Amino acid sequence: MMLWEEVDRPSAVRAFRVVSPNELQAEHWFEIEPVGGGTLLRHAIDGEAFGEYEEIWRERIEPGHDRVIEALFDKIEATIQIGMRLPNSEHQSSRWRIAEIAPDFRLEHVWALPARGGAEDFGALLEVMASLDPAHGESAATRLLFSIRFRLGGWFGWDDAARELAIPGNAETTLSARLPLDLRNTATDLDRSSYGFRPLYRTDDEWAAELSNRTVHAVMHLAWVEKGEGCYQGQMGVYVKPRGKLGAAYMALIRPFRHRVVYPALMRQIERPWNATLAQRTE
Fold it and tell me: To which H or E segment does residue 144 belong?
């Protein structure tokens, strides 16, 4: 049996030393180093094996140790990547159908959603998304921001649903007019009209809906992104086309609140029902 004890080591966040058997004299440790705009996590090992443990280490211990460390790093990477904002290039690098439908819209931001599953689980993600109500969620700060937004919209008539507005710079009032034949009437089973979004289309790995008011014409795009080895992860992109100076100023004003308050709270709202959905499947 091999026994370890935790030890102090300069610059290491965690360090461990073999205390038994005596034929193994080894330490391994983890270091964290800021690099550019991110963080480098490094694992190192140093030591010697004597006698019969030279072969035992080479044939049994080292391969198992490497698999454990690799799995640990994969888990850390997956945890970091779930529920975080991504570079726009992450979304734009895939050939999503939304690019041909809304090429004149700006991709405002992209988020990796806290939802992972198999290829067939995209429908479950859409059901979770349809069940959410960010304006009445657990986050008090988010509820306050939505309350202020709805009040301003009521005062200034920003959300008058009875009046259809043309997409900025176009004569069309809805992106549904741009849908190719194979995408028409594909998203009728998922309604987001409760807070302004109207479904546009759905494929096996994409779903899109639009919102139109007097400040912006926007698109919520959900994608089911393959991550390898049969694993997929949800991704959300928000495309916008502000209406004139008012819309541009409004988008600039709310941007920090969306990034720091609204979307992090939304990630938590998604994670709980998604995990509950997965738990039900394993019962």
Answer: helix 140-156
| Angle, alpha carbons 96-230-123 (nearest 5°) | 55
Sequence-distant (6+) residues with CB within 8 A of 191 are: 130, 199
Tell me the three state secondary structure of residue 184: coil
On whether the CB atoms of residues 172 and 178 are closer than 8 A, the answer is yes
* pLDDT tens string 16-29: 888 888 888 889 88
Residue 22 to residue 144: CA distance in whole angstroms:
62
Is residue 242 helix, strand or coil? strand
Helix (H) or strand (E) holding 98: helix 98-101
Tell me if 143 sits within 8 A of 137, measured CB to CB: yes
What is the value of pTM for the model shown? 0.68
What letter represents residue 139's amino acid? S
Q: How far is CA 9 from CA 15, 17, 30, 47, 53, in A?
A: 6, 10, 10, 15, 25
